Amino acid sequence: MRRDHRLHFLSWDHRKTLYECFVLSKYLENFNDEEVLFKKAFFLNLYDSELIPHFRAEEEILLPLMLNHLDSENTLITKLLVQHVTIHHFIQKLKNENSVHNIRLVLKELSKFLTEHIRFEERILFETIQNLLNDDELNQIDYELKMRYEGKYDSPSCST
Ligand SMILES: [Fe+2]
Ligand SMILES: [Fe+2]
To answer: For residue 160, what pLDDT is reported?
Structure first.
């Protein structure tokens, strides 16, 4: 199903992170030590500047609206939360790791997990949200995301 335009900002974030994970999966093996350390810093920065606000938007906007229709124990909700915590865990490991060999391993795990997480959200979670939520609820998502994202995607090539 086509992605509802009111979820576009989150899907654009997904595309950006998926690309970075793809680059890692393809080139990490060939990176020298300096490049591995650069990628560690890059992913820690991506986490602070992009992933944290993105996770918060999903947890604070999407999930509460889903509870209008689903039980809070629903597996979609628990799966999303558990996966977010797992990503926080990988980031902690990455922060604490100083050996290039181990940083390489954590980056590999993190990029694989992030890719699976985004696939789950795009293929299952967002599909469910588009089908489950009514128009007013989807408009609320749109409004709240625009408030949070401000000018992030204000460019001619990013029209909703
Ligand atoms: Fe997420
Ligand atoms: Fe997401």
So the answer is: 47
